[in-house]
Amino acid sequence: MANILVVDDDKAILDLIENILSKSGHFVKKIENSEKVLFEDFDYYNLIILDIMMPGIDGFQLCSKIRAQVDSPILFLTAKTDEADIIKGLGLGADDYLTKPFGVQELRARVDAHLRRDQREKMHAFNIGNVRFSISSKECFVLDNKIPLTKSEYEISEYLALHHGQIFSKEQIFESVFGFENESNLSTIVEHIKNIRAKFIRFSEEPIKTVWGVGYKWD
Q: pTM of the entire structure?
């Protein structure tokens, strides 16, 4: 769940992006007048989406001003496919771009990927209740007790914990953790989660819950 700023002079596009990203649990702040963006507290946002072609202050100008203040991921949203514009945008500090018209899944996947990368780069460790994750050493603890997780078990646990409260299917977990889809291996997710639970229960913790017919979540 993240705070996302979207700037576009097309209200229909703003509403569409809000509808897509809010379903993933994100809060979306929409701004139609680019000149009003300069009054925003950019530190509040985890990710920023900017249209390039806007009256008044365009996306390139906004990117330069925003990048000078924060290091949050910036995505350009543009109808342009000219390579020179893409190179210019990335050179100003943008992290990625989406070409209009864009697909729902593509938008969601790009946003989630940049949020994951940004979060992992900024954090060395994080706590959820009694459970602590050390991202740098890939270790997990309950209070002072190290949980003997395998590499895959740790990656699954970290992924669910970083998105705690959000429900993921076996397919989503497999693709996000291992990087590709393979239905024949989905049973490995079930086995990994069974093993993770067994290791946590030794320390009276049951963080992974099953949502029947849907998937799993870190509670």
A: 0.57
